[in-house]
Specification:
Layout lengths: L43 H4 L13 H23 L1 H12 L3 H24 L7 H15 L6 H13 L4 H29 L13 H24 L1 H21 L3 H29 L5 H15 L10 H12 L4 H32 L4
């Protein structure tokens, strides 16, 4: 049944009662049926519940690889000790019968070598590094340096440490290049200073290379520079990173040489490094009765490391040792005593700190500092 009222003649919509105003601090009452708020009131993250991330398994490949890297230095040390056990045993026996006070002096100079290495590392980068972690990284780098040739292990550990401290890769690599350049330059300056101050110690004519050797060295350097120039010119992927590295290295070197503290740390520490190494050798020699002075031992080390220091051997072991024995014999030391001095020096600087350095390296890797 339809209505007969003329709805079209009504003046407008029917009046409605206004809803009571809700204070801003009063919560809207919920429905008695469900206490779940409307979907529009939920945050975006609550609309789709996230699945909890499972914890990594202790047998996952990444976890096993980290543990393998932690134990790798210890395994390498064990293999090296097994291969060179006779040298370690003979050198340790000689040190036991040596003068203990000179042996302790050699240990002191060995520890000071790590401090100076940390100082030089700080002097080669503009950013301020934490002193304790920097010293620990150099102690660990010493263990890695005696396992891999040409200082590759020490540079790798230091580069990982710099990256862990927020240093960009280009700046860290430039710091390693400056460190590697400062050490031979400072050592050459120290050698020239010794030759000028003590010209009577050595007849240099016996050590000057002949014409054929000089031509071979000059040809090798020229070929290396030409190869690098050809690679940079022809291989485009190498051009941009290499130019960026050179630009960063030059900029950092300019900044560092405007700071007297960095200049003193870089060049003073680089000049002190061979003097500390010679002090270790001289202390071991004095403990064994080596008839040479500290000046003669220092000059022998400088000449030996300059002559064959470029040969890629782990920690310089092998070529530098043979050249050092030859130089000390040239100065008048008996062959057996000179060899015993070099072996004792390697015991103090390589084998005694190698296991603690490997443990520090493993701890820093485990704690993700490296």
């Amino acid at each position: 049944m339809s209505s007969s009222l003329p709805l079209s003649d009504l003046p407008g919509p029917l009046p409605t009662r206004p809803a009571p105003a809700i204070p801003a601090t009063t919560a809207r009452p919920t429905s008695p049926i469900s206490s779940t708020p409307p979907a529009s009131a939920l945050p975006a993250a609550a609309e789709a519940p996230t699945t909890p991330t499972p914890s990594p398994s202790p047998f996952s490949p990444a976890h096993l690889a980290r543990h393998a890297l932690t134990l790798l230095p210890l395994l390498l040390i064990g293999a090296w000790a097994a291969a060179d056990w006779h040298t370690v045993r003979d050198g340790a026996a000689r040190l036991v019968s040596a003068d203990p006070w000179w042996v302790l002096a050699g240990l002191f100079f060995t520890c000071m070598g790590w401090v100076v290495a940390a100082v030089v590392r700080q002097g080669s980068i503009p950013e301020r590094l934490p002193p304790g972690l920097l010293l620990a990284s150099q102690f660990a780098a010493g263990a890695a340096n005696h396992v891999l040739p040409a200082s590759i292990g020490a540079h790798a550990v230091t580069l990982r440490f710099l990256q862990g401290q927020g240093i960009p890769l280009a700046r860290g690599t430039a710091s390693l290049a400056l460190y590697s350049l400062a050490k031979p330059v400072a050592k050459t300056a120290v050698l020239l200073g010794f030759l000028v101050a003590f010209p009577e110690l050595l007849h240099l004519g016996e050590l000057v290379p002949d014409r054929r050797t000089s031509l071979l060295v000059a040809g090798g350097v020229t070929a290396a520079l030409a190869t690098a120039a050809v690679l940079v010119t022809t291989v485009r992927p190498l051009r941009r990173p290499l130019l960026g590295f050179v630009r960063t290295a030059l900029t950092d070197a300019r900044i560092l040489h405007t700071r007297p503290s960095r200049v003193l740390a870089l060049w003073g520490g680089a000049a002190a490094t061979p003097l500390l190494q010679a002090s270790v050798i001289a202390s071991v020699g004095f403990a064994l009765g080596l008839p040479l002075s500290w000046t003669q031992v220092t000059l022998a080390l400088l000449l030996a490391s300059t002559a064959v220091g470029a040969v890629p051997a782990p920690g310089g072991i092998g070529p530098v040792d043979a050249a050092l024995v030859f130089m000390m014999v040239t100065f008048g030391a008996p062959m057996g005593l000179a060899a015993a001095t070099v072996i004792g020096h390697r015991i103090l600087t390589v084998w005694v700190p190698l296991l603690p350095g490997a443990l520090v390296l493993s701890i820093m890797v485990q704690r993700k500092i490296l």
